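Morning, I've got a small favour to ask if you have a moment. You're getting the sequence in one-letter code plus the fold written as tokens. Thanks so much in advance, here it is:

===
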Amino acid sequence: MSDSSWSCATELTVRFIKKPARLPHLLERLPSSLDKGSRRRCQFLLTGVVRHLSFLEAGLDEFLRKRPRPGLRAALLVAAYELMVDAGKSAKIVDHAVRQIGEKYSSAEKGLANAVLRKVAARMPERFSAQAKDEDEAAIRYSHPRWLIKRWSEQFGFEAAVSMAKWNQEEPELFMLPLKETPGAEMGVESPWSPYRNAKGLNWTEVSELLDEGAVYIQNPGARIAPGLLVGNFTGGRILDLCAAPGGKSVYLNRALGDELSEIVAVDLPGPRFERLLANVSDFGSEKIQPLDRDLFELDAAKLGKFEAVLLDAPCSNTGVLQRKPDAKWRLAENGFAELATLQGRMLAKASEFVNPGCIFIHSTCSIDADENAEVVDHFLESPEGESFELVESVLSLPWETGHDGSGAFLLRRKL
């Protein structure tokens, strides 16, 4: 158990409980001197605390008259998470945490931490095995905002809402999309979603070697749904991939379409995400993928031309990928869905300008929410910009049913 990783995890947890932030942004704050093992351990602890935040806080609050100052509270949260995942080492975990706290805080706070953590350890198995009977209990037991559990209950029913929350609390599996016909690309375990391979059984060094060779691309099978709709209805020509960063859908399309594809123009805003798009296209794409750093609303159809397929992977709430982005649930706002839907509607209207007659137009999100999927598409089809389109097919991936990321995808066609 690395003291440096534990201390770093505690410091980053302080930052998160003060203001929820994206985990990758927090992890960028780790000192460069931290070794790889400590870095991985810190990431494990921080991600675990964020994923199970409400459950851990409730377990601590049971034995606290009031919440302590942020630093001590963060240390207790990190220790509580360790007790949750490794109950067999509870005595060792408590002793280590108390020693760390004693070096930084007063003797009274050290004593408080010792008493509280020993009680938390004793109660943890019972609390962890408990089943939620209503929305309030589900929000705490499975660590989601109560309003989000309620929203899912209204859309899918309470049992489905609990299934979704449980899914989000599981550690995500790592999947690889093979890009080359090489022995290395067949490493890992076959998945139900061919050609994807599950990286189960591989260590990160092995995965890194495959990435360095350009043999595989890391991608969840849920990401195939929207481009899969496109592939199944594409008859050749040019594709406009909007909001394309980090480039996974362009890479998938380039692999799947072969000679049918003449060009993919992959568009996203300038910035760090676009830089990732450039890197991924360089490593995993081909000369058919042409990155373009532009704002969608600044694109000119007269200059860029029309396309045989347009794919708009719109900004969304990320509710379909909370298993991989546990910080996102704490950054969501209940009124944010309406704002996102408005933006998506504007983007659909603009993107529709680039679709040739008789050709296809796909709206997709990594959200399971109706407001960002069916409602947005229905509103578009009723608008002046959308009246020349018709809905051909739609898919809603619900993670607790499909076993991979959630998403919505809608295939439209411009009428001749």
The chain has 19 helices and eleven strands. The chain has four domains: 3-130, 144-169, 175-218, 221-414. The mean pLDDT is 95. The radius of gyration is 24 Å.
